Amino acid sequence: xxxxxxxxxxxxxxxxxxxxxxxxxxxxxxxxxxxxxxxxxxxxxxxxxxxxxxxxxxxxxxxxxxxxxxxxxxxxxxxxxxxxxxxxxxxxxxxxxxxxxxxxxxxxxxxxxxxxxxxxxxxxxxxxxxxxxxxxxxxxxxxxxxxxxxxxxxxxxxxxxxxxxxxxxxxxxxxxxxxxxxxxxxxxxxxxxxxxxxxxxxxxxxxxxxxxxxxxxxxxxxxxxxxxxxxxxxxxxxxxxxxxxxxxxxxxxxxxxxxxxxxxxxxxxxxxxxxxxxxxxxxxxxxxxxxxxxxxxxxxxxxxxxxxxxxxxxxxxxxxx
Amino acid sequence: xxxxxxxxxxxxxxxxxxxxxxxxxxxxxxxxxxxxxxxxxxxxxxxxxxxxxxxxxxxxxxxxxxxxxxxxxxxxxxxxxxxxxxxxxxxxxxxxxxxxxxxxxxxxxxxxxxxxxxxxxxxxxxxxxxxxxxxxxxxxxxxxxxxxxxxxxxxxxxxxxxxxxxxxxxxxxxxxxxxxxxxxxxxxxxxxxxxxxxxxxxxxxxxxxxxxxxxxxxxxxxxxxxxxxxxxxxxxxxxxxxxxxxxxxxxxxxxxxxxxxxxxxxxxxxxxxxxxxxxxxxxxxxxxxxx
Lengths: 321, 291
Known about the structure:
Chain A is built from 14 helices and two strands. Chain A has 321 residues and is mainly alpha-helical. Chain B starts with a helix and ends with a helix. In chain B, helix 1 runs parallel beside helix 9.
């Protein structure tokens, strides 16, 4: 890969990260009320307020404060949750694995299932399976994630009883090893499906259109004329290039999934950073809210960067733009 | 969504202005376009005429609590005995207000940035596109969450935030159109005639560059409605108005006893978003000559 392209993209990371930090900083200071109260809560004593004032340099001019704030964040110090009385970074680290498991599963599942549905649809173009699938994915694409989650709970958990309603593990079991993995897996099915639904729809629509465009090309006609089996034509000749658009949206989809995860975690009582964020907001725990925001924002930016680099690696034309 | 939109925008769809009325007819003639237009109209009508259409005030305690859907209460009632049908109709009004205000902001910002970047080119283009990329990766949903966390719930700040962060796609599509248009014969002709730069931009280029942007707007607004609903669901909606997301969030507590509380607000969102997506797709398809 051209080194210049990589360097250029990496350099763009700086301003973006700075903008995100600035947003966080400005929010503390623009919000109504004394920033000390936002950062330290309403119930602290004078000594603690003085400590927070000192730490964030709240008596200094604004630019100095911004520098202090940026310095703290860069050192991984996101402040202290005044509701939980612990460092924000610890609280987040504790909740992060659950969210990674949920969004990771949804990302992998939606990519695989989406491409599979796209291929199914494109190879039956305009016939009733294609029309049915296209309509179904469109509805899935438009459905709010909480509706899908609530319907899944109503039909598959409460009525059919196939899946647990809430949580990540069975509270009564202290299982370890394989049975623990199975327990978590059982709890994971519904939240991951609800979260993945919209992305399954997006990916399938994208790969369907990509494949249809590709199947119209000359090299496909040549391959067919040479007597290459249709299966090979579709799966190895056409699909390869048809998947490029699917790669370009990986970064954006990560952002969508993390946002959706907040809602899904609330619907299913999943103990991840999304639910942490919502409870922190209800408790007006500003350091936690900001910490989660910074983490998510940086993750989304990095995911977009990685996507662009991956795309440039796959399609050399991008590098010479 | 962004991906399909970008794909459609990749090939400039500029056609001379004279064909626009036919374009609308063509896009409405497809089944998708017709259904999309119908659903979108339904959203607008329900939003505008809510006081006439709703049987009661959405906050009025009207009947027994948690009544299943029946003749008297077609969508059932909530835990306080409020009529859900009225809630859903008034919810359309909230969605419409948010969608229309955000759309207006997106058109103004996106068009301005796209026109400037495409027409002036060079460093102006570079700078504006870097800014556009920056805004494009900002996580809108989380910024909305944080703003509401610090400033309290309210439609005004929500609209402001979503408007300021939702324009990049539109700007990029308009820019591509302008790039394709700026050296076309009719633009050169206007320039030779001594037309001012403002006149060329607003009278010659803008009318031709706008349609693909407007088609995209349907998709952008659909996402905005979903974001507003999600925030409402998380209990961050404006407490002074009824919104579909807020209604669905109340449903969460009564899921086991009152399925209708979840189903009807959710379906309302689904239909509104589906309508806007279908309409946007149909117009885009008609523009790019697909199908």
